Amino acid sequence: xxxxxxxxxxxxxxxxxxxxxxxxxxxxxxxxxxxxxxxxxxxxxxxxxxxxxxxxxxxxxxxxxxxxxxxxxxxxxxxxxxxxxxxxxxxxxxxxxxxxxxxxxxxxxxxxxxxxxxxxxxxxxxxxxxxxxxxxxxxxxxxxxxxxxxxxxxxxxxxxxxxxxxxxxxxxxxxxxxxxxxxxxxxxxxxxxxxxxxxxxxxxxxxxxxxxxxxxxxxxxxxxxxxxxxxxxxxxxxxxxxxxxxxxxxxxxxxxxxxxxxxxxxxxxxxxxxxxxxxxxxxxxxxxxxxxxxxxxxxxxxxxxxxxxxxxxxxxxxxxxxxxxxxxxxxxxxxxxxxxxxxxxxxxxxxxxxxxxxxxxxxxxxxxxxxxxxxxxxxxxxxxxxxxxxxxxxxxxxxxxxxxxxxxxx
Length: 410
Fold this sequence. Notes:
It is a single chain. The protein is α+β, with helices and mostly antiparallel strands. The chain has helices at 7-23, 48-51, 57-73, 91-104, 111-124, 127-138, 254-262, 269-287, 289-294, 299-327, 335-358, 375-382, 386-389, 393-404; strands at residues 144-147, 163-167, 170-181, 188-194, 206-212, 218-223, 232-243, 247-248. It is built from 14 helices and eight strands.
C-alpha cells in the first residue's frame, strides 16, 4: 500500500509542524523525574491532566497556554463539528495532527474526554448533554476519566456490580471502580452502573452515567504502581446522587453506549511513534563512545533490534490501515484488537531487547549517571501493564478469532 501524503495532506503536515514550533510554550518542558504515562498517546515528561493543576506555576501556566493555543484552532477535538469547538478535520488530517505532535514530543490535551466521551455524546447524547459538556472539553477546561473496571470486573465487564437505584429525578450510586486512569485529576467521570440486578444476559441491565467528580459521597484514592507512580485510582461511591439527566442513552442499555465509546479508540499511532523513537535512541547510544562502554554489541542484540524495528513498521502500517478504512467511511472492527494486542506485546519485547543490550546495567533504576538514563529499565516496568490495561491479550485474541476469522465462540 502507498501511504504517501497527497499534496493537501503534505501541506497540512507542514502547517502542523509550523504551529507546534511557533506556539508550544517555551517554559513547558519535560519533567526529568516523571515516569512515562501509560496512556498510548502521551509523551515522556508530560502528563497534561496533572500539569494543568500542578503546584508549579510555570508548569501549570504552560499546560494551560498549550491547551488554549490548540483550542483556538479546534485542535483539541480536531474531528468534532465546529459548532462544539472542533475543527471539522478529516480522519486523515486528525491522524497527521496526532502523528506530528508525537514526533515533536509535545503533549496531547484532554485525551479521554476528547477521543472517547465526546464522540459518544455526539452519537448517543442529548442536545442538552452535548451543549453542556462538549465545549468545555474542546476548550481544555474540563477533564474526564472512564469508570468501567471494578474489582473482579475487568475483562468480564458485564459482571460489574456498582449499583444505581432510581430515586425520583436521581440515581443513587453505590459501589467501587478501580484502575481508573488519571481519575484523581478528572473533573467529571463517565461510569457504567447496574440498574437491573437480575438481567439475563447481564449486559442488558447496565446504564451509562455522567458523574461530577465533586459529588458528595464519592471518594477517589490514587493507586501506586510498581514504579512508585500513581497513574490510576480507585473510586468509592457511597450514596452518590446523579441526576437522571446525566444518563446517556436508555436505562439498562448502557452496555451498547459503552461499546460505542470503545469503538472510538484511536488508530494506535501514538504508541508506534514512541517505540520508533526508543529504538532510534538505543541505536544512537550503541553507536556512541559512551554506549560502546556500557552496551553489549553482539550479533544477537543487533538481530533483536532489527526485528523490533521491523515490528514497529508493521504496527505503523496497522495504524494507517485502520485510519484509511475510517477515511473510506468504513468502521474498523477486529483490526483495533489486532493493533492493541500487537502493540502491547511489542512494547514488552522492545523493553526486553533494551534490557538485554544493557546487561547488568539494566538493573539500574535511578536515572542519574545510569547509561541512557535507565530508559529501558523504566520501559520494562512501564510495559508490565500493557497486555491488560487496554483489554487483555486473551480477550483481544478472542475478538480476532470470532469477529475477524469467523471462528465459533465455543
